[in-house]
Amino acid sequence: MYAIIKTGGKQYQIAEGDVINVEKLNAQVGETVAINEVLAVGTEDGVKIGKPVVEGASVVCEVLEQGKAKKVVIYKYKAKKDSHKKRGHRQPYTQLQIKSIEVK
Questions:
Q1: What average pLDDT does the segment 9-31 reach?
Q2: Alpha carbon distance 49, 28 (integer Å)
Q3: Are 71 and 88 in contact (CB under 8 A)?
Q4: What does the alpha-carbon distance between residue 41 and residue 33 come to, in Å, rounded to a whole number?
Q5: How far apart (Å, rounded) are the C-alpha atoms in residues 62 and 99?
Q6: Which tens digits make up the pLDDT trace of 53-77?
Q7: What is the pTM of this model?
Q8: Arithmetic mean of pLDDT, 79-91
Q9: Burial of 38 (0-12, 13-18, 19+ CB in 10 A)
Q10: How many C-beta atoms surround the C-beta of residue 72 within 10 A?
């Protein structure tokens, strides 16, 4: 069984037991989180596609880690102007383990 979920403005295809990194969620490590924005669910019987979400479907996840991704360096340079700017950014993320996909 698999599902396509939406969280943080992005879509992810998941199955039970998968570990994924999503945009930061307000949850502590070890907590259980339910994601209700399930766009599609694939089972042995076929695929259920939501309009826009599948009614009564949810995904239960456990928070494994709250962290920051590797640094992305932004370097701006203007030739012949003696102008340069160097900035860095580390995007925060939440690591989730998929416990179960529930469809009613």
A1: 97
A2: 31
A3: yes
A4: 18
A5: 7
A6: 999 999 999 999 999 999 999 999 9
A7: 0.86
A8: 97
A9: buried
A10: 10
- Residue type (1 letter), 77: Y
CA distances to 42, 46, 56, 69, 75 from 34, in Å: 18, 23, 12, 23, 39
Residues 6+ apart with CB under 8 A from 23: 7, 8, 9, 10, 92, 93, 94
Q: How confident is the model at residue 104 (pLDDT cuts 50, 70, 90)?
A: confident
What are the tokens at 88?
Answer: 């860095």
Residues in Cβ contact with 16 at an 8 Å cutoff, skipping those fewer than 6 apart:
1, 98, 99, 100, 101
- At 83, give phi and psi (nearest 5°): -125, 125
